[in-house]
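Hi R.,

Here's the chain you asked about this morning:
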Amino acid sequence: MRILTCLGDATSMETWSNTPYFFLNAGKDAGFLDAGWQLDTKVLRYHRLAWNAARTMKRWEMGGFQYSPSFLRRLLAQVQPIEPDIEVISHFPLFPPLRSGVRRTSYYIDATLTQNFNEYGLSGRGGVGRAMAADAVAREREQYEAAELIVCMSRWTARSVIEHYGIAKRKVYVVPPGANLPASVPAGSCVRLGGSLRPVRLGFVGKDWRRKNLKFVLQIADILHARGVQVEIMAAGFDPDAAPSHHLMKAVGFIDKRHELAKFVNFVRSCHFTCLFSNAEAFGLSNRESLRLGVPVLARNVGGISDTMPAGCGHLFDASALPEDVAGTIQSYVQNADQYWAIRTAIEARREEFTWATAVRKLQGIWLGSDYHAYERIKSHA
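And the predicted structure, written out as tokens:
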């Protein structure tokens, strides 16, 4: 028996961008997962206040309650003890904590804590205290050493597990997750496959518009507009009143996939490209959703983004690329629309590659002993 867990309710679409929910359902359908823990982090908010107050009195660093042993023990107390042969697959590197009664643990993670603290700036002033971060990373290493398997969503994360934590290569694997969309999403596009790219529509999806670099996409649009190329930015996921406005951008706000799935699907499929030029990004699930819906991606090669988009599914730009570089690529497709539609048709044909069902089949192979998705093998064939 296998149980999925994360910091929250693994059965809810509201948890961690829907990832545990879609993984759990695909895993159940395939007979790979049996259940998900329903954990409530909100009930520990008063413990958080008390924890921070105690640290203030002792003049210790603030921040990082969710990484503390106290938080993790209290969270685990919400579930019933499990039999020794039951395996827990966790999305969070510190949970369930060692010596907690859970004997078999494996991980499926998008980033290590070292990457989160360094790349996302979560450690230091205004974030997790440096002492707490160092302690959490030390415990994380122990967790990985005791784990049966560590599956990473990208090669970027796998490298960190091996190089930053010294974990044996033999138990580190890479399996990109599927798009967080129901298996029932129909094939085909609401945009006719053919015709002019005038105006060319650039999609942007993300709540954290600063980190995902909306400004860069606006600069691309400005350059195209100055070159006489008709362009529109279609943006979703953030509050339009809290973000920059722009004469070339139409911001539609947050689209709740739980209740507005058709609206979300139509929004993505109405774009010619979706854009992800993040300053930091552990993976970038929006790219998988775009490809699942047949839309090519333009992205920056940072973090784990390269594993979100196989060759032939768009363009991956170097982190040093300028808006002018991206604008030139887009302009070439506007001038040669047939080339664009050929890429889009090819992506439509491989849409099943980006589903959770496909990801689960790969995970099943790992659990059956296959080394096909071992990081060492993937690295040597990259």
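The first strand starts at residue 2 and ends at 5.

Let me know if you need anything else.
M.
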